[in-house]
Fold:
Amino acid sequence: MYKNILNIVISSAVEFKNKILDKSKLSLLRFNNKINYSTVQKPFISVYIPTYNRADILINRSVRSVLKQTYKNFELIIIGDRCSDDTEKKILSISDHRIKFFNLQYKKKPYPNTVENHWLCGPIIPANYALVIAKGDWIARIDDDEVWLEDHLEKLLNYALKYNYEFVTGNVEAVMFDEKKLIKGHKAFSEYFSTKDIKHDNHNPYIGGTSTWFYRSYLKQFKYNKHCWRKKVNRVNDIDLSVRFIKAGVKVGHLDDLVTYQYPRPGEDTVGWKAYDIDRDNKMEHFKS
Structure:
């Protein structure tokens, strides 16, 4: 009972703070960043990958697909979340000056050690660290087990510039139990995000998966919420941040085109939360530290 009350109090306090501050914060960020993004020649992009002890998948999937991008002006920030395998060794074996690797060290995760919590907020600490050190004009994220199409960055950048969006996403092709599914995401103003009743114009784009996220660098001031696991709704870290973007009034667009592939990890048959739920014992063993 005490823990439930504490969760309610903390999550409510965070929600209240964001409700009061986020709109003003966005206005101030826009005021302090009055550059014309469409006139910046070959803008610099910060791509970041949070990872934990998946060296082979990291290198063979996400890193390889990032380095194959048709758009070349980027930095690739890889943040290890206390990695104890050979992740660092394998990254350092790649000769590319755009890659930066940091392996974070801290005592314990800021949430109870459960499969659900690893899914809800596992990448928050490395993701927020990446946002602090990112130097790009634009920010892009890819998870360590996903794969970008070669024109991923080029497509999303051009789309954002064409329509003057601050935050854009795209479509994902996911393989679930040997079946390919095209996933657009969910509408910004919808029951899924608990934003259906918010007043808006007729523009109601989809918000796609995190590995399709592409946004202006000043939005990195909106950090992932380390208390998202305490909430009753919108508990997943990226959903929590999506809702903050929506409520703050960020200019959101969705490119209705395939930009990312999502494949099951070795030994698994599907992706996302379902993969965690089916394989609970192995997931707990993987995240035991």
